[in-house]
Every structure is written in structure tokens, then in C-alpha cells.
Amino acid sequence: MNSRQLSYDLGGKKVFVTGHRGMVGSAIVRQLESRGDVTLTTAGRQQLDLRNQSEVFDFFKKHKPDAVFVAAATVGGIFANSTRPAEFLYDNIAIESNIIEASHRNDVEKVVFLGSSCIYPKMAEQPMSEDALLTGPLEPTNQWYAIAKIAGIKLVQAYREQYGRRYISVMPTNLYGPGDNFNLDFAHVIPALMRKAHEAKLANASSMTVWGSGKVRREFLYVDDLADAVVFLASHYDGEQHINVGTGEDVTIAEVAAKICKVVGFEGTLEYDASKPDGTPRKLLDVSKIEAQGWSSNTSLEEGLRLMYAWFCKNIEDNMIRG
Ligand code: GFB
User: Fold this and answer.
1) How far away, in angstroms, is 231 Cα from ligand 1 center?
2) Which residue, by CA, sits nearest to atom 21 of ligand 1?
3) Would you say the CB of residue 278 lies under 6 angstroms from ligand 1?
4) pTM score, whole prediction
5) Of 310, 151, 143, 170, the residue nearest 239 (C-alpha)
6) pLDDT tens, 186-210?
């Protein structure tokens, strides 16, 4: 990948990946396993409720990780975000506060906190650079999640400033890939449309529904590319400012819907449901900072969708699809 000098060597370390059953956490686990030189720690929801401070403090005291990836979060697409404001705000503030404070108390050397591109203002100049944070009002459909993630960035900065911790924040663009949530009440646009197209094809339906106008633009990053970036940044980045991770390219929802239908093999028409929200008009990250560090994404949207659909087909047969 890159031969730049390491700022933190993960080799030989005990690494706790929170949220390892989710799409992002499981991709980070795959990435770390492929290195073969770290000892992984994970904990399922039954074993550890990350919203519970005393459980988290006890877990850290017992397991003493050297490095922690904060991939655990209450997440969802535009519908879940706008209908579950309390869960999106409370759960995420509790999870990140507990993990970061527990990391500090137990002298964790490196924390990588993951946020989201929805931290930026709704009308931020595009592409959105890291400096756009807190320069304007948020998109209402995901303001609760965004506020929680902004609090996480500030926690990381505060622990750096007050305690000299080498913790960092990474802001991914919209993600998709194996392990995504296909439950239509929670799903982001790609898994939702993949599932709808698959079911429409099996039912020989003549059309399927796409929410909103189809005209808004989103940038999509394949989750294994994100995991590669996150592990790269853990080793090579130690800045106080959060850092964007994306592809630097965006498409309209209509364009991504057409690509999904092609990969799935659904040839019917798309009907746009204007009663559903569009959300933010455009979300494209400025990725010049991470590219200057020596990292860029390498999975095209077409290739990522093919890989994701192959995973979906295999797992739906085995009844392993969430939702
Ligand atoms: O991916 P998505 O749910 O979230 O929606 P956001 C993206 C766009 O796709 C919106 C449209 O304009 C949706 O109206 N869309 C079309 C659909 N059909 C569908 C469908 O069947 N399901 C869904 N879900 N969307 C989220 C935030 O915003 O992005 C989170 O709510 C987070 O906070 C995440 O930041 C990355 O891109 O609008």
C-alpha cells in the first residue's frame, strides 16, 4: 500500500474492534486479520452493552487493549434517522463517550473514532473539506446522528488537548458492501434498492419504487476500501483534525439505481415516490487530505455493487441477511 513512515505500529498490538458484527466493524476485522500480526478483541451485544458505562469500564480494565477502533454505532438510512431521533442521539453519545473515557483511563495508545459525512452543513460548499465542520446548519433528517458524531470528534480533540492522547477521527462518506443492513426501515439507499430490485426480479414485477426525486447526489465508498483506509490512518495519521475518506466522485440516486438494476438483472421501470424525503442535495467529500497522506480508494462503484450483490445472493440462501 504505502511505505511512508509509521506514526503508530499496530504490529504485535492487542486491538479492540467495537461493532465487529456490523458492516464497518466486520470489514475492519477482515482487514486486521489479513495483516496477521495483531491480536483481536471483540465483544457481542450480549456480552457488552457499549451504552452502559460500568460494563464498558469493566471490559477495558479486564482486556486492556492497546488500540481501539470505534466502529460501533446506532446507524441507519434516511428513514431510521428521521424517525428515531432519541436513539440516534443518545446511543451514539453514550457509546463514544464510554469508549473514549475508558480508553483514556486504561492508557489505550491509539483510538480511531469513526464518524460520517453528515457532520457537515446541509449547504456546505462541494466537495466538502474538513474545514466545513460547524460552518452552517445541518440537514434536518440526520441532525441527531450528526450532532452525536460531531461530539465524538470534539471528544477526541479534547482528550488530545487535555491529556495528550494520540486519538484520531475519520469521516467516511456513504458506505456500502457485504454485511450491510437490508431491512427497508433501516437500510441506506444501496442495500434498500438492491433488495427491492432482487425481489422485483424474482416476482417478475414490472416496476419498483425509489424514494425521493432521484436527483440528489451521493458519494459511495466500498466498505473494504474504508477498512483499508482506517487501518492505514491508524498507522500513519496523528492529526488533531478529523480526516475525510471517500472516492472523490458522486452520482445521482437515479444513476446508482440504474447501476443496481443492471447488476441485479432487473429490467422493469423505476417509480419515484415524491412523498419520501430527498435529504441533503449533495454529499461529496474533498479527499485531498487523505490523498496527500498517500491513500486513495480502488474499488469502482460497479465492481463494489457486483461484489455486494454476490454476497447478498450467497447470504440470502443461507438466511444470513440482516432484516
Ligand atoms: O442512503 P440514505 O438513506 O441516506 O438515502 P442519506 C440517500 C438518498 O437515497 C435519499 C434515496 O435521497 C433517499 O430518499 N432513496 C431512494 C432511498 N430510494 C431509497 C430507499 O429505498 N431507501 C433509502 N434509505 N433511501 C444518511 C443519514 O443520509 O447517510 C445518516 O441519514 C448517515 O445520518 C448516512 O450519515 C451515511 O445519504 O440521505
Assistant:
1) 26
2) 192
3) yes
4) 0.96
5) 170
6) 999 999 999 999 999 999 999 999 9
The secondary structure of 153-176 as a DSSP string is HHHHHHHHHHH----EEEEE-EEE
What is the average per-residue pLDDT within 119-130?
97
Amino acid identity, position 106: N
Residue 192 CB–ligand 1 contact under 6 Å: yes
User: Does residue 221 have its Cβ closer than 6 Å to ligand 1?
Assistant: no
- Dihedral, 113, 117, 121, 125 alpha carbons, nearest 10: 130
CA of 313 to the centre of ligand 1 (A): 22
> With a 6 A CB cut-off, is 77 part of the ligand 1 pocket?
yes
Residue 169 CA: distances (Å) to CA of 25, 100, 215, 243: 15, 12, 31, 6
Strand partners, 68: 16, 111
Q: Report which DSSP code applies to 128.
A: B
Instruction: Evaluate: CB of 119 within 6 angstroms of ligand 1.
Output: no
Percentage of the chain lying above the pLDDT 90 cut: 95
**Nearest to 116, CA basis, from 295, 22, 255, 246:** 246
Segment 28-51 mean pLDDT: 97
* 3 state SS of 7: coil
Spacing, Cα 289 to ligand 1 middle (Å):
26
Catalytic, out of 8, 145, 176, 222: 145
User: 295 CA to middle of ligand 1, Å?
Assistant: 27
Please give the pLDDT value at position 4.
Answer: 66
Whether 35 has a pLDDT exceeding 80, the answer reads yes
> Which SS3 state, helix, strand or coil, does residue 58 take?
helix
List b or e across 235-265, with b for residues whose CB sees 16 or more CB atoms inside 10 angstroms.
bbbeeeebbbbbbbebbebbebbebbbebbe
**292 burial level (CB within 10 Å; 0-12, 13-18, 19+):** exposed
Catalytic residue status for 145: yes
Query: Across residues 111-123, what is the average pLDDT?
Result: 97
pLDDT for position 316: 86
Rounded to whole angstroms, how far apart are CA atoms 322 and 93?
Answer: 24
